[in-house]
Design brief:
alpha/beta; five-stranded mixed beta barrel; about 35% helix
Amino acid sequence: MVSAFLIDAIKNPTRVVQELFEEHTGDINQFPAVVARHFSDVFLNSDDTLREVLPLDVNHPPESFTHRSLVRFHGMVQDTSPSPEMYLASLNENKCGGWGISQNTPASEWPSSFDYCDLREATTLWAVTVPGQTDWRTEELTDRSHCGSSSSQSPPQPHKFPVPNAPHIGVQVKIYDNDAAQLLKATDVVTFIGILTSESLDSEDNSSPMVPSLHVLCHKLQSTGDTPHTEELATVREDLIKWIADEALGGDEDAAQWLLLELSAKVYTRTTPLLPPSLTLSRFPSPTPSSPALPTLHYVLSDLLPQYLTVPLSLDLLNKENFSPESKDEDLHSGYLQVPQGTVLLLTENGVREGKLVEKGIMNIRAVQEVMDAQTLEYSFPFSKFSFSTDIVTIVLCDGRKSAFFQTGFTVPLETKPLLKDNLYKPRDQIKIPDAVKLAAYRSFLAAAKRCFGTVQVAEETSRHIQEDFVRQRQEDSSITADDLIHLMKVARLLAASMLEREVTVDIWERSKRLDANRKKRSL
């Protein structure tokens, strides 16, 4: 049963805010929090009520809504640096002035003189469509009854979206609950519910362009959740490896297993760094003139992952495009690497030809390497630079023995089966997609493996075995160092997570050694 509160909030959110204002008898500074709690209770307690609100997205662009419509926007915070906006909290006859109401109020209803104590600040930021959010994840977030399409105009401020020339929504977000707003940071993925208007990007500049503006009533950060996996889920691992191998890696199940380990990784701890290792799949052939430009792996990963982005590297792209955010004239321009935590990035080097890297290209390569090595990304401002934490899994495809640009944690030479080699590049409609139930199980498995990685421990018995094993290996081969032990420990943790195991056992340790030894043999 749909509640009266829900109907009122959807039909006329402005009136609901005004009614709350009239009922409020406490400190006016607390009123934004009262509004946030009310609308959170109405919309954010279940997915069903949340989906009652029309989505703001590329299929439902700002111009398709009437003025001051209630919308929900699932987006990424791109820029938190805009100055706060001043607004008059109270108008004549006990009318509320926030949430864009004062801008739409006739001058006759404004107080002839007002108390400066009624002035308040709203936090202003810029948010964009979540870069790299895959189609199936978008459909999951959008109720089927709201599916449809509408012609969208060119988005405002296109330089604030990480992927050049990609369709997206950009919106100016105004949050009146400042305490809650202070918790938001760049690349956070947030669902905003608010009143949609069109306003000047800079209220103090008459020449400033008009942009979509969202007056936020309530919001919530995206949560990864912690749903326990079932025994049935643990059985799909080998099936998933074989499907990835046969459809996208020329039948190479060893390479598919390394890919699965990579997809199980995330930032575990930064104090004693345990970060996602980067992966290079080397000897990956370039496409032929008659084959698709993108590898089949691109489509397979986009069907499996909620956050995934392919960047087809070329000298032209490296030398001209931004990979790191940079502030220009007090406006933060985005770059390919400004993506949400948990994103998987596929970098293909097959389009790189002979030529020269200019300074910008070199800086872009350094930025990618910094993400690989330290999981940090540098934001450039006129007089300073700041590093922000990332959590990006990076996979590189190259046709040589190793990447031309990057030092990655693992390099796995591809070994294809002759009958399946053509599968490396094929149109999407030729991929054998599993049925909906199996595909959902694959996605759930990968999500469970990533959650598992953060909890993997090494049992005391296994720890003793590893120490004794390492001493024995050192005695047999003096070239083995502590770095080799650290490397194998990382492989063992990833293998355990990819098996949905919470503990590295002696058996997993031995399997990790064999897996890595086979990888090294390929490189000879």
